[in-house]
Specification:
- The radius of gyration is 35 Å and the shape is elongated.
- A hairpin with a 4-residue loop joins strand 10 and strand 11.
- By secondary structure, the chain is of the alpha+beta class.
Length: about 375
């Protein structure tokens, strides 16, 4: 895909973060080889039973039957298997059991108080920014510090609906990636506290990657291919009402001569600034500048005016015939689709001779003409 601009198309914004102290049940990943062996047995056997487990893994279907039953009951309490009765109790894997086998980790529930930071950033794969246990202060300490107690009471609020409605799954928090966690249950109310963390999302549309940054540190990175550069560029053009002036065949913007500055007229590129670009349902991003975007004349009149300017601007030395023709070629080069003629050297010299604005350029032209070079 041809690049639209010299820099990558990168959209940035700080992500929203809500931090809560909440009571609830969290599943924490642990290495439990005994349970994983049980889960593998259940996965491999359509009619998994305690007796079959005792025979296959414990090598004694009668003497070890009680041990097998306890292992399966533990897996069931952890939500890793479910059972139903036929002639014997038959076991099968749950979604958590499948995940445990896939990750080689068992999720063990733990009730307590937690300090959790959430984000509803739609471009991130999950919502949990940070997670850690929270130790409730002892009662007598809170009584001694009534001001702090009142402040905490004021912070007690109903958990944001989008958090309560989130279907949580096993993830590693972006800022605390020690182990996978799975939020199973949280109380409807919690203590809302201020988050001191500022995380920036950086979406490189050109490279189809997303990075989550804590300052300069990359805390998460992944490929994102829902949009390509041309799709986002089209959206940006439409928001600024520039889509009718964009030529996809040329990958270039049609412009009037008066819309350009001196640098743009020479380089045939320009910088375009976009204020708070908004991408469909993904929301707004920070201001963005597309650097060195190709431009072309909007019509023949603009091309002639542009070529004239480029030729005149190039006259900065003695104009022997070969040099002058080179300048003419450079002036005309971006406008090959239009047929028009720039004046010959002597013709232009005569025009300039009557115009004080071009006296020095006229001297370059006339001198070379007089010297017949």
């Amino acid at each position: 895909m041809k690049k639209v601009m010299s820099n990558d198309l990168i959209l940035r914004r700080d992500i929203p973060i809500e931090t809560w102290r909440i009571q609830g049940t969290v599943l924490k990943a642990q290495e439990r080889s005994d349970i994983l062996l049980v889960l593998q047995y259940v996965k491999d056997n359509m009619n998994a039973t305690a007796k079959g487990l005792a025979k296959e893994l414990l090598f004694e279907e009668n003497a070890r039957l009680v041990v097998a039953e306890r292992l399966l009951q533990m897996a069931e309490r952890l939500g890793l298997v479910e059972s139903h009765r036929q002639h014997h109790r038959i076991y099968f894997l749950t979604e958590k059991g499948e995940l445990a086998l896939q990750e080689k980790e068992v999720f063990v529930p733990e009730d307590g108080f937690w300090e959790i930071s959430f984000t509803n950033e739609p471009l991130l794969p999950h919502t949990i920014v940070d997670f850690k246990p929270f130790d409730e202060p002892e009662a007598f300490k809170e009584v001694r510090n009534k001001g702090e107690l009142e402040k905490r009471k004021d912070n007690m609020k109903t958990i944001s609906p989008w958090i309560r409605q989130t279907a949580f799954h096993a993830v590693k928090p972006f800022l605390n990636q020690k182990q996978n966690i799975w939020i199973e249950r949280i109380q409807p109310k919690g203590e809302r506290i201020k988050s001191n963390v500022v995380l920036t999302l950086e979406w490189n549309v050109s490279k189809q990657t997303i990075r989550l940054l804590n300052g300069q540190k990359v805390v998460h990175q992944f490929t994102y291919q829902e949009y390509d550069q041309n799709q986002i560029w089209q959206i940006l053009l439409e928001q600024n009402r520039w889509q009718d002036d964009w030529d996809w065949a040329k990958n270039s913007m049609a412009m009037l001569f008066d819309e350009t500055d001196e640098k743009s007229r020479q380089t045939m590129t320009i910088n375009f600034s976009f204020r708070q670009p908004e991408i469909d349902d993904l929301g707004q991003f920070n201001d963005f500048t597309a650097e060195n975007v190709a431009i072309h004349a909007i019509d023949k009149d603009a091309a002639i005016e542009w070529a004239w300017w480029r030729l005149i601007n190039n006259i900065n030395d003695f104009a022997d015939e070969q040099t002058y023709q080179k300048w003419v070629g450079q002036a005309n080069a971006p406008f090959a689709e239009y047929v028009f003629r720039l004046p010959e050297r002597d013709e232009l010299a005569k025009r300039f001779w009557q115009d004080e604005r071009f006296s020095k350029k006229a001297w370059y032209l006339m001198t070379a003409s007089d010297w017949q070079i």
